[in-house]
Write a structure and sequence with these properties.
Elements: H1 2-17, H2 33-46, H3 49-53, E1 60-61, E2 73-74, H4 77-80, H5 86-95, E3 97-98, E4 102-103, H6 109-112, H7 117-127, H8 144-152, H9 158-165, H10 178-192, H11 218-227, H12 238-246, H13 253-268
Antiparallel strand pairs: 1-2, 3-4
Helix pairs in contact: 2-7, 10-13, 11-12
Amino acid sequence: MRKRLIAILLVAASACQQKPKEITFDGALTTDKAALIRHGERLTHVLGCTGCHGAHLEGTFFTKDEPQYGPVYASNLTVEVPEYSNAQLDGIIRHGSHPERKTVWAMPSEIFQHLSNSDFTALVAFLRTLKPIGNKLPSPQFSAQDRKDIVAGRYKPATQMVQESKQEQPVDLGPSQAVGRYITEVTCAECHGPKLEGDPHAPMGRIPNLIVAGGYSRAEFERLITRGIASGNRKINPVMVGVALTRFSHLTPHERDALYAYLKARAEKP
């Protein structure tokens, strides 16, 4: 009897010590290599990689339309990724650190620090399949305006942004809302802030607290998140329209359901 009791206790203890299931986007936990690479490609859209680095990740002149800044280029990932190990890419993407330049600039590492290990692995797996296009682009340069903004604290290196936002996250509403919360951490938080509270004075136009999602039905939210059409056809920040069309339209139906459920629950939280 005593041996049986000990065995039961050992099994119970082992169960308690098991790691909780990793929260990821749909498809990250596949064991099929081709499927993992396809998932990584989808993430380049969802996470906005193609928005900054170009449709084929060949790099862009990031400040082309803002001559008072830079020049700053979004790296040509097709030629730069092979230069770095997975650990170095992790430093660049999720920590904002660069093996040669110490830090990166204008890279949203403050939200990517929350990217799960499995999603990061899939993303890198896809990036390593890219065939080279064009040449390596110049490192960032700082204009007089950039330097003024840096001194004033309006323009910060990614490493600093990571540290400042490390403990600031959207409210945790429990396991049932974990996937939706995770999606907001690595997407919505880029514009709406780490706690999703928005910014009424943002340079690109007013950004609302995502409590506004509480006023949307599921069907209205679907139109917003995939087509950029707000409830009642209201005029909204054009950035959100672009994000819906180029990024959130790549979310799976399950991910959109989870995102809506979390934002609705957050809005209704006492």
